């Protein structure tokens, strides 16, 4: 049954990717400014701040440290995109960075593709967490699989497979990038370093090499993030970023749709 399920999803993904690839390269879609969506996007619970949970949560501390390189050494993606070592732009795993655009046949919700992304992301709330989850079906996610699947299913945009590769994609193609959370817009992808503790002081004085990208999520606006961090924290969830370790771990963000 699982093999059949994977086959069905694989066919669907191929259709989405092929249609997306036909989109004109000059397609642009502005990210939605931060609006008040608090009524229908409340914080899931307080588990991301409970010391009894996070102090003993190994996946939260490890995060997504190059999951594609570690768990997919056979380069499964090479069947679809190829492994072009001589490409001008490569992600950290050696795959070519190829800019993706929304499938033109998909209508933007309320006039903006970011809302398609948000609605799809919310439909997966509480989906279980699995480190190195199957990239071909959505029964479980790790953080980068979640963001990739959301953009793929919502808009037909095929992003790279892990957090550092998606960060490379943002740096290569996002016209709007920032290190100040105040500049984040609804639908943006945000990147975070590994969990070192719940206090701001745990992250003071760190050098860039001490802050590898290990986590990511989608910004909802109103200071909130939809993401998945570990089994202990309950899979896909919504959290407030400010005044918590997520704020202290924030590295940078950008707009995939800009």
From TrEMBL:
Top-level taxon: Bacteria
Signal peptide: 1-23
GO biological process: proteolysis
Keywords carried by this UniProt record: Hydrolase, Protease, Signal, Thiol protease
Molecular function, one GO term: cysteine-type peptidase activity
Domain NlpC/P60: 111-258
PANTHER family hit by this protein: MUREIN DD-ENDOPEPTIDASE MEPH-RELATED
Name used for this protein in its record: NlpC/P60 domain-containing protein
Native source organism of the sequence: Paenibacillus solanacearum
Phylogenetic placement of the source organism: Bacteria, Bacillati, Bacillota, Bacilli, Bacillales
């Amino acid at each position: 049954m699982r093999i059949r399920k994977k086959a069905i999803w694989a066919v669907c993904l191929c259709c989405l990717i092929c249609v997306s690839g036909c989109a004109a390269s000059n397609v642009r879609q502005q990210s939605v400014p931060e609006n008040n969506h608090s009524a229908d996007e409340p914080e899931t619970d307080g588990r991301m701040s409970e010391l009894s949970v996070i102090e003993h949560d190994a996946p939260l501390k490890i995060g997504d440290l190059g999951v594609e390189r570690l768990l997919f050494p056979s380069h499964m993606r090479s069947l679809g995109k190829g492994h072009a070592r001589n490409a001008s732009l490569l992600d950290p795993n050696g795959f070519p960075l190829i800019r993706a655009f929304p499938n033109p046949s998909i209508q933007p919700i309320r006039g903006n593709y970011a809302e398609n992304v948000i609605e799809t992301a919310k439909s997966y709330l509480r989906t279980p967490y699995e480190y190195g989850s199957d990239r071909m079906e959505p029964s479980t996610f790790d953080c980068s699989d979640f963001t990739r699947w959301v953009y793929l299913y919502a808009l037909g945009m095929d992003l790279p497979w892990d957090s550092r590769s998606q960060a490379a994609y943002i740096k290569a193609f996002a016209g709007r990038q920032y290190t100040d959370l105040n500049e984040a817009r609804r639908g943006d992808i945000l990147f975070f370093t590994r969990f070192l503790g719940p206090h701001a002081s745990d992250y003071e004085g760190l050098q860039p090499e001490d802050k590898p990208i290990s986590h990511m999520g989608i910004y909802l606006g109103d200071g909130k993030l939809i993401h998945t961090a570990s089994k202990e924290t309950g899979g896909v969830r919504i959290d407030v970023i400010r005044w918590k370790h997520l704020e202290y771990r924030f590295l940078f963000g950008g707009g995939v749709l800009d």
